[in-house]
Structures are given as C-alpha cells and as structure tokens.
Amino acid sequence: MIMQTFTLIFLIALLVTTLTQVWLSIRHIRHIRAHQNQVPQEFASKISLADHQKAADYTCAKTSAGYPGILLHVLLLLAFTLGGGLNALSEFWDGWFSNSIIHGIALIFSTFFIMSMAEIPLSYYRTFVIEERFGFNKMTPLMFFSDLFKQTVIGLLLGAPLLFCVLWLMEQMGDHWWLFAWFAWIVFNLLVLAIYPTWIAPLFNKFTPLEDAALKSRIERLMSKCGFTASGLFVMDGSRRSNHGNAYFTGFGKTKRIVFFDTLLSRLDPAEIEAVLAHELGHFKLRHVIKRIAVSFVISLGFLWLLGYSMQQTWFYEGLGVTVSNVPSNAMALLLFFLVMPVFTFLLHPISSLYSRKHEFEADAYAAQNASANDLIHALVKLYQDNASTLTPDPLHSAFYDSHPPASIRVAHLQSQGQV
Q1: Position 252 pLDDT exceeds 80
Q2: Does residue 262 carry a catalytic annotation?
Q3: What confidence tens digit (pLDDT) does each residue in 35-78 have?
Q4: Rounded to an integer, what distance in angstroms lies between the CA atom of residue 380 and that of residue 342?
Q5: Which of 280, 360, 375, 386 is catalytic?
Q6: Distances (CA, A) of 296 to 21, 242, 264, 291
Q7: Residue 143 contacts by C-beta under 8 Å, 6 or more apart in sequence?
Q8: What is the CA radius of gyration of the chain?
Q9: Residue 220 is a catalytic residue
Q10: Which of 35, 160, 279, 289 could potentially form a cystine with 392 if both were Cys, beta carbons 3.0 to 4.6 Å apart?
Q11: What are phi and psi of 209, to 5 degrees?
C-alpha cells in the first residue's frame, strides 16, 4: 500500500512540475510578445525598437525550443523508473561485474550517458539553429563534438573517484555513511574550485594576460581599493564559440583570477569595464561566493541524510519501479534519489532565485560605491543589447529561472544609487 502511495505521489509531483514548466514557458512567450512592439520607457533612448524585437524573437525561440527538452526529460525519467530501464541496466551489468562498487559505477555512468546522448540533438539544434539564426554561434560541428568529448572525459576522470569513494563509504560506514560522504563531497568541490582555472578551463578556451596597459592599470587600482588580489588578469577567447559577452572571477586562494571575454572588452569602454569588474569584486568582498558554497553544503547535507533514510525503505525502490533484492543496491538508491529529487524540488526554485538576486543587488550597490552606477548601467544596457536579453520577461517565469533581477528592476535600483 505504501509502495502504491509513493508511486502516486511521484506521478502527481511529476505532472505538477511538468505542467508548471510548460505553463511558465507559455506565460513567458505571451508576455514578451505583448510587449515586443514598444521599448520600455527607461530604455527607449538607449535601445532601438529593432534590437528590442530581436531580443523578443530570440528569447521566444529559446523558450519554445525548451518544450521538447521538458518532454524528453519526462519520458526518460519514466522509462528508467516505472518503465524498468534501471532494472534492465542493472541486470546487464550483473553479467560484467561482480564487485558491487564497480557495478554501481557502471550503472550510474551508463544511465547518465544514455540521458546525455538523448539530449545531444536538442543541444545541437539550440547551437546550430537558434544561436546561428540570431548571429551568436561561432562554433563548428567539430568543436561542438570535441567539447562533448572533453566534458565526458573530464566527467569520468573527476566523477569516477568521487563515486567510488561515496559508494565505498555507503558500504563501510554504517548508518551514518552520509556524514562521511558529505565531508568527501566538500573536499571534492573545493578541489575542483582550486584546479578549474588552471587545469580545466584551458581545455576549452585560450586565456591570455590582459595586454592593454592603461586598462590593466585602471583595474589594478580598483582591485587595490577593494582589497582584492588575484593571480592574474586574463582575456578569454569567448568569440571562438559565441558573440555573447561576460566577465567573471574564478578560483579561490592563490588560484583566484579575473577573466574577461574578448567580446566584452571589444564592446565596453574602460570605465564601463571597471564598473562591471567592481560588481564582480562586490561578490567577493561581500563574501557571496563563500555564502553560496556554505548554503549548498548545508543543503547537500540535508539531501544526503534524506537519502540515508530513503534507501532503507522498500517503498522507495518499489514505488519507483525498481526490484529490491535482499540487500538493496547502494548505487541504485543513489541514482534513484538524484533522478527524482528535481521533480519534488522544482517549486522551490524561486527561493534560490530570490537569494541570488539579493546578492546581485548588493554587488550592484558595491559597484556604485567603488566605481560608477552610471557606467554600470551603460555597460548593462550594452550587454542586454549585445546578448539579445529580453527587457520584458514574464515576472513569474523570471522568478523561477533567472538568478539576476529583470533589467528594469535592476536599472531602477542602480539609479537610486547615483544619477544617470
């Protein structure tokens, strides 16, 4: 009876999540179309109607292209769970591996490999149809598949040791394995943060030291003012793949580095670049990165505890269509949990977005104090224009999916920090 109840709960949650995603997309498209023929008043002198309509068309195209992805995810999830796919994969690997940990690694990796392969056509369409149509794509098919290959290899090299460690802990550490696994997860994440700037990112892009002496001097003065030290200022060849622009800092400790897309440097004035960097430094100075990492670690501890409880319940497996032997598979429990958890947590997305937006407002205020609110507004307007970001997103859709505040709200907040 409990098994049937959990199956019903899962199906209802999946239906609610799926319908909500589709409803939000429909709202988003309708809202954008309703406002595409007039530039919002606060942007009327800065962005042309043609650019505003291009952003509307681009955003609606991307949103419409998400419908097949929503359907594909539902079909794959049902096929793997209630459809018996995980049972079939587990039985297949039974003939290859007798060791439970190696068997579990094969089961988990093969599941995510199948899911990734199924999503490649959609990703290819987004890149070579939508991005190409709106003039953003610079990738070639060879580069596209080369990136996929690199991502797969990196995933194996980093994921296999972590997965082996977690499955070993699940076998050896008794009922409190989840606490040990949590420590392993923390160490793994900090390690990836440390090696990403110098070992992983260069596999996909070329990073060269910033050569503009005047701009470099200006940035170094800002960094000194903000008490920020970095291992270097770098320009990333983002134009190899896309015309979108951005800037960020990455790493921690001695590996911290500031990275500018070459597309951003070619578009913004030095004062605007300084304002954008001041915003990024605001995240550092206000400890947003540390706070987000800490929150993610606390949440992961809660999830691991919940997994530790769920894997001891027969209804958890059978309610999701998985056959339970005398000793349930740790790998199967881990896989099931992380496959279905997004179904139950989707409606909580606005909480995460709200927390992220709070940090964005704070970083904007910091930039206004240490650079110029006026310059940051001008930079943001150029980035909205160059990236074809809609100025009129549906508020509810934005609350679920956007980590940054909508353009009009963000600009109004900045205007309150200083006169344009």
Answers
A1: no
A2: no
A3: 999 999 889 888 999 999 999 999 999 999 999 999 999 999 99
A4: 32
A5: 280
A6: 24, 30, 30, 9
A7: 240, 241
A8: 24
A9: no
A10: 35
A11: -60, 145
Q: How far apart are CA 320 and CA 3, in angstroms?
A: 8
Distance CA 238, CA 111 (A): 32
Contacts of 272 (CB under 8 A, 6+ apart): 375, 376, 378, 379, 382
CA nearest to 219, candidates 267, 271, 152: 271
| pLDDT tens column, 68-112 | 999 999 999 999 999 999 999 998 998 898 888 999 999 999 999
The 3 state secondary structure assigned to 279-308 is HHHHHHHCCHHHHHHHHHHHHHHHHHHHHH
pLDDT in tens, 352-365: 999 999 999 999 99
| Beta-ladder partners of 261 | 236
CA 121 to chain centre: 20
**DSSP letters spanning 140-187:** -HHHHHHHHHHHHHHHHHHHHHHHHHHHHHHHHSGGGHHHHHHHHHHH
- If phi > 0 it is left, if psi is from -120 to 50 it is alpha, else beta; for residue 251 that is left
Q: Which of 274, 364, 375, 386 is catalytic?
A: 364
Q: Which long-range contacts (CB under 8 A, 24 or more apart) does 83-88 make?
A: 83/321, 84/321, 86/111, 86/321, 86/322, 86/332, 86/335, 86/336, 87/321, 87/322, 87/323
Name the packing angle between helices 49-64 and 2-34 (round to 10°): 160
